[in-house]
Fold this protein.
Amino acid sequence: MINKTIDTDVLVVGGGLAGCEAAIKAKNEHNSVLLVDKGYVSRSGASPFAAGAINVCLPEDDKDVWLREIVERGEYINDQEWVKLQLERGYPLAMELDEWGRAFGHTIFERDEQGNLLRKKARGNINTRTCVINAIPAMDTMRAKVIESKVSLLERVMVTDLVLDQGRVVGAIGLGYRDGKVYLLRAKSVVLSASGCGFKLFGMGHRNLTGEGQAMAYEAGAMLRNIDQAMSNTTARAADNHGMSLMAAAGGRFLNSLGEEFMWNYEPEIGNRARLSKLTVAIAREIAAGRGPVYMDLTATSEEDQKLMRKIVPEAFKAFASLKIDPFKEKVEWMPAFKGTVMHGGGIHIDITGASNVPGLYSAGDCSCTPEHGTWSITGLNLTFAIVSGDIAGRSAASYAREAATSGVQKSDVEETVASRLAPLDAKVGLTPDEVIYRMQKVLIANDVAYIRSDASLRRALGEIESIREEAVPSVKARNSHELVKALETRSMIRIAEMIVRSCLYREESRGFHYRTDYPLTDNDDWLKWIMVQRDEQGSMRVWAQNFPTPYLPAPSGKYPPK
Ligand SMILES: Cc1cc2nc3c(=O)[nH]c(=O)nc-3n(C[C@H](O)[C@H](O)[C@H](O)COP(=O)(O)OP(=O)(O)OC[C@H]3O[C@@H](n4cnc5c(N)ncnc54)[C@H](O)[C@@H]3O)c2cc1C
């Protein structure tokens, strides 16, 4: 059943910004590196759609001010060592990327007339400012640099499982959906940078992000963390778009049906520039209170900012144009949009070397628990984290690989797993993957599951998810390798859906994206904890709360309405 075996020192799964950075840095250490992607590196995943904000602490900035802002706005569940790392390494790595871009003829960072990095106050920024990045040239640069660095590339191959040998990760199984081949990818260490799970919902850049990286890490025994912070963005109702950080930075206003700029009631200091977590819950609460629909109003933005928005997020404006909407002339209906574990929302628990608890397994970018963010602090941290965590995980995986023995894992050792992955191709009757995906989406995007939760609504969702997992997912059929990809995606999606609902049930307070009507307060006395998930020895999902250190900025004690 296995058509091809490839040996490498380091295997990187997922070639977004984080995976490309990891592969390049691992290769710099003179290892052989294979980068495998489900799509086409530079045009798949979230990275090419990133909407311009990259929060980089410049050398002249006060790092303590940045740390305070990120930790306070991350509602104190950030990993503060990662925040510090990001503040120290973000700037040199961003400038290295800028340099690579120049060498390949791309402009990555926007600069003012004096040549200084353009900086703006975007969502969540009070004492800090975000730089402006062109995501597509950045990803074109990454692709070119991966090739120049002699990283081997394997594209249109979906990785489905990790391979273990005596508790150590020694490779992965991949399914080539264009050539129909099954690959055994043997490696001494693996970096998972395949993002999280977006459940194929309304959203640019994450139709193929269906959680395999996080699900396969779970199956291998890795701990995952902060999945209770499964996240949402907000978007125009008529067409998904991106660029809201820039829109808010340019003076965009959120209005309810009474014409009120309601965000000042939820985030008095910065109103329309509120963090994503606050904005999502606020829009959902306005609608629930009968003050919907909600609009984004860009009519008062300056011509200069309008030009910048059109340049940085062209896809958003193409979508508006196709619907004959001019967002600079009329207010646009807006809504929350659930994103799951893509762009943040929890993931693989990593230490400051990017290592998981499973030997040989590392993670970077959105596939990891994005430890710097806490709940979701300020806009633009994700892109910086992608390059910082990619750099760290790539180097760490390379040095692990230098010391590690080659595994003797053979094709025959993985045949049983491969057979079960290919089984949907043999099913003569069954559900289509789309039917199952739709059922899952309906459970997760219900208002009382995605945004305004309670014990009762989460228990109802868990029951439905368990029935989809037990009955629907095992009976999916596939007619060809493309449908097989979708069938396998239902497996990882249901796993992540269960993690989300179980983690949300566990956290009995409100914090960040997690808003519960039955526990409406943030509770630093009992819940200043990370919610962890791991597969136990019986194969059940274990969820628990873990204390964590706050070495630089302790949290205030007490209970209070979410800040
Ligand atoms: C519309 C939008 C706007 C955004 N705007 C901003 C912004 O302004 N600022 C900011 O900081 N962040 C922003 N973000 C978030 C940011 O883009 C992401 O956090 C970041 O790009 C994540 O990079 P990554 O490399 O971890 O993942 P991705 O770029 O998503 O890459 C993951 C890769 O893994 C591959 N993959 C997935 N599954 C598999 C599999 N099973 N096998 C093999 N390969 C697989 C995918 O094909 C993809 O190439 C935005 C995100 C979106 C969607």
Remarks:
- The CA atoms of residues 97 and 138 lie 8 Å apart.
- DSSP finds 16 helices and 22 strands in the chain.
